[in-house]
């Protein structure tokens, strides 16, 4: 059962920098979250060498 949004208001950010397999494992283990459709917001961003800084900044606004 999901907790209400108010339960998450005091949570801290966590950044993970690692190889693709390790980061994928962490997401599968539960640190990543995707909300229900239709908006399907996620709390993570996959970044590679082609990702622009503006896209990274916009993801965490």
Automatic annotation (TrEMBL):
It holds the Pfam family ATP-synt_F. InterPro entries: ATPase_V1-cplx_f_g_su, ATPase_V1_fsu_sf. GO terms for cellular component: fungal-type vacuole membrane. Belongs to the V-ATPase F subunit family. Keywords: Hydrogen ion transport, Ion transport, Transport. It comes from Cryomyces minteri. Coiled coil: none annotated. This is V-type proton ATPase subunit F. One of its GO terms (molecular function) is proton-transporting ATPase activity, rotational mechanism.
């Amino acid at each position: 059962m999901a907790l209400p949004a108010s339960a998450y208001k005091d949570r801290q950010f966590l950044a993970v920098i690692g190889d693709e397999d390790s980061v994928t494992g962490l997401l599968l283990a539960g640190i990543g979250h995707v909300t229900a459709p239709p908006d399907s917001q996620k709390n993570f961003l996959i970044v590679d060498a082609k990702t622009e800084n503006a896209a990274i900044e916009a993801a965490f606004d």
